[in-house]
Design a protein that fits this description.
Blueprint: H1 46-50, E1 118-126, H2 132-150, E2 172-178, H3 179-184, E3 215-221, H4 224-238, E4 242-251, H5 284-288, E5 305-314, H6 316-320, H7 324-331, H8 368-371, E6 383-384, E7 387-393, E8 399-409, H9 416-426, E9 433-443, H10 455-458
Antiparallel strand pairs: 1-3, 1-4, 2-3, 2-9, 5-8, 5-9, 6-8, 7-8
Helix pairs in contact: 2-4
Amino acid sequence: MHHRTHDRDDAPKAPKVPHVSEAAKAPKGTKAAKAPRAPQAPDAGPAERRGDGVSRRRLLGTAGAAGAAGLVLGGAGGAAVHAAAAPDPGTALTTVGSTGVPFHGRHQAGILQPTQARGHLVAFDLAAGVGRKEAAALLRRWSEVAALLMAGRPAGGGDTGVALDAGPSSLTVTFGFGSSFFDRTGLGSRRPAELEPLPAFSSDRLDARRSNGDLWVQIGADDALVAFHALRAVQKEAGATARVRWQMNGFNRAPGATARPMTTRNLMGQIDGTGNPKPSEPDFDARIFVPADGGGPASWMAGGSYAVVRRIRMLLDDWEKLSLAKQEQVIGRRKADGAPLTGGTEATEMDLESIGPDGEPVIPADAHARISAPEQNGGAAMLRRPFSYHDGIGPDGEPDAGLLFVAWQADPLRGFVPVQRKLDRGDALSSFIRHEASGLFAVPGGPAKGEYVGQRLLES
């Protein structure tokens, strides 16, 4: 759950939208300085044309902060599998709502952006009798609505008004296809080899009702109402074409909640996200995204990625009974600052050869950080971008809480699978977690202007 922090120096800064009421606050008789106006969409609505209010669209920021994120639960410093870090510099609380993320682009939104404060993961199954034509119409509707909402605009004439007063709030809506989608739509010959079912792991306790699905949607935003609004819009647009198979709700630390940008903590209290692969690294795209020159039946996946989704319950009552020293031995890092037990800071490389006065490795042989380290897994890499979750207290009195693990990679057989196999064989953390749901989804590249997500598959 705990990997190397993603260095945000290469992330573009989100523009700050000035507070629109500063002029109104100027003392009587004085002339207030005019603040620069925020970018305005060309097809401005009535409120913007009249100038009599601040609409969602006037709050629209022009760029999303880019960065990498992710996490293999508890992957303390390992296998290039790590959680999203906050943007650098920290976002002032007054600008949280104004940040927008483009819908169109080379990659779908929701992969490279920092994790948001609120998230929803939802899978759909196509209704009986639905085929390729109906599925294409659904993806077209979803794409149109997502583009509107991510721009801070209402979701068409039937908008519920839930997020009427908010800006885009870094909203991202990401769409993917499960393995079963291809047979249901007559596209079995276009199914990627990378979408083969994940192997079984001995630690799995999977609930089939909360796993897999024909279609998958990831929603994230820095405002809970904006995220819910998008979830409701996606569900409504599904209509009779698809029904919800499962849905999971998550959260992360809100932007501006810490005095300086910091790697987030998971529900075990561990700094979780040390070491995601960085977009500035020369092999980043090759590890995370499908190449454009791949060719073959899955050429429609160019610029896309494969998302492994796992619901990982944390056995918090058992974990919290451990002493601080024992927790740090299980992870292989200090709880206070995320530094390896061999010393330094959170960003310091682990010294896996270091031996303590007792003749034992300073970082134990079964520590999560050691087992998931890249050098222990042939350089296996994932871009982890998770959410924490809490679904109440169970009948046994224990919290149903943990991690909604989402990991991105160009090929799960070279990313998630080898790391999880290694963890499955001897990770000290495995006694305190339980994998309860799983899914693997092909997430195509981002749509160009005028395209909808998946168009290159559904109309080829």
